[in-house]
Amino acid sequence: MVASQSPVCQSCAMPMTKPGEFSTYSDGSQHDEYCTYCMQKGEFTAPD
User: Is there a contact between 38 and 23 (Cβ–Cβ < 8 Å)?
Assistant: First the structure.
């Protein structure tokens, strides 16, 4: 049996387990590849 794994942020590798931890696109829909600390509204929070 294989344990299911939580998705992780592609930028910082933070596990994302709660809806509020996922980033959003500019239209407000959920983005599944980045956390809210790295990307908000489709823009990286620290693009450098």
Answer: yes
Alpha carbon distance 29, 18 (integer Å): 15
- Show me where the domains of the chain are located: 1-48
Q: Using CA atoms, how far apart are residues 10 and 22, in angstroms rounded to an integer? A: 11
Q: What is the pTM of this model?
A: 0.79
**Structure confidence by residue, pLDDT tens digits, 2-45:** 556 889 999 999 999 998 999 999 999 999 999 999 999 999 99
Q: Beta strand pairing status for 22-24 and 30-35?
A: antiparallel
